[in-house]
Amino acid sequence: MKNTTTIDKRSLDRQAADWIRGAIVAGDLSPGARLTEIALAEQIGLSRSTVRSAMQRLAGEGLLVQHAYTGWEVVTLTPEDAWELYTLRCSLEGLAARLAAERIDDAGRAVLTAALNELKDSIAVMDRRRVALADLTVHRTIVTLAKHRRLSMQYGLVIEPVHLYILSTNSMTEPLEAIVPEHEELVDSILRGDVQTAERLASEHVSKHGLRLVELLRAQEANG
């Protein structure tokens, strides 16, 4: 008889990290929220040491901050954080778009088109969390299509903070449909193999939304 049991091959600390990461991205653990290993261990159903390892993993991803004597905290996006992320993304994604346009093949065109269609579908049902994930997937796909291992590695180091960043920038966009044309234009330039336009549009897209988020966060700081 065929065994239909699904075996989860992820380590326990990775499973715990995935659970906490998902809660942060979903908004169940809000920016600035204080966390304790004991409470999370009880909630997730794993040992405190396993949860501690998971939290250390997430600290390395930039999603959690550990404070001496006071415990853990979900990262809060500051104006400086937003500035660092968008300026870094401008460089990485501008280069990625240029290389993707230069090196894309038919299989890559299909994958990128599918990613864009998922973004459109998520916007059609007005699910902001799904939109943020689909938005991120478009950008990750472009980085992958660049076929540049070291570029992908560097992008992977900031992927989770970028996810939160996209959630924040999309929350400022009303209506959400407004982000479709700029993604369509970027994707179209890559599909056509227009390397210069692809690089320019990728950088402009990130700069536009990054500057808006920095200005918003500075205004929030000024207002206490």
From TrEMBL:
Q: Which SMART domains match?
A: FCD, HTH_GNTR
Q: What keywords are annotated for this sequence in UniProt?
A: DNA-binding, Transcription, Transcription regulation
Domain HTH gntR-type span(s) in chain numbering: 10-77
Named from the GO MF annotations, one term is: DNA binding
Gene3D superfamilies for this protein: GntR ligand-binding domain-like, Winged helix-like DNA-binding domain superfamily/Winged helix DNA-binding domain
* Coiled coil among keywords: no
Q: Per its UniProt entry, which superkingdom is the organism in?
A: Bacteria
Pfam families hit by this protein? FCD, GntR
What is this protein's name? GntR family transcriptional regulator
